[in-house]
Amino acid sequence: IDLEAAEFAGRTRELPSEGFAGVNVTIPHKEAALALADEASEAAAEIGAANTLSFRDGGIQADNTDASGLLAALPGPVGEGPALVLGAGGSARAAIWALAGQGASVSVWNRTPERADELVRGLARAGEGTPAEGRLRAVTAEQVRSNGYELIVNSTAIGMRDEDPFEHLPLEPERLGRGMVVVDLVYAGSESRLVREARERGASGVEGVEVLVRQGADSLRIWTGREPPLDVMRRAARAT
Question: Which of 8, 22, 25, 30 is catalytic?
Fold first, then answer.
């Protein structure tokens, strides 16, 4: 038995009796959150992970607002051009599902190629018969460097401790420029080195804190049915 997952499940089931309407879930419990739920949204089921749990009528509803939060944080609609997602964790799964569902052709890179292959195969199976079908592929570092992308999403932890992203990721700063959107899901600090470099070269940069706020806002809508105060949430997120 997975004791960590069992402890998570036991503690979560206690929350409704303590007055909680729902909770946000982060790594490493997103898959366990989905498994715990009695019902799941289409997004959570196809992504294979849940970051939002709601307690209703004695049951648990699972949702995934990582995907919708990412799309809401982008400066414009996702086109059918090439996109790159770096990483193979729960955030990457949500990003890939979201972008492919909007029509993008998504390449997936991970430091461990087998994880990228496994992720692509799993999401491809989940996407059969949907707009995401046939839009995913795993790529090597060499393939990343030899291709151009309109949208790049870093869902790895590189940058959390101010590491140089161009030392650890298969990205070259001189290939960032106007017409591109670069998203860094890392939200430690006000602006990551990747976002700063992208903006200095004319690309649109999206900070991880904005994605965090947007997914939290979607969770609040689910729990309360009300429109969340985004500006208040941004100030609170940047103050932590």
Answer: 30
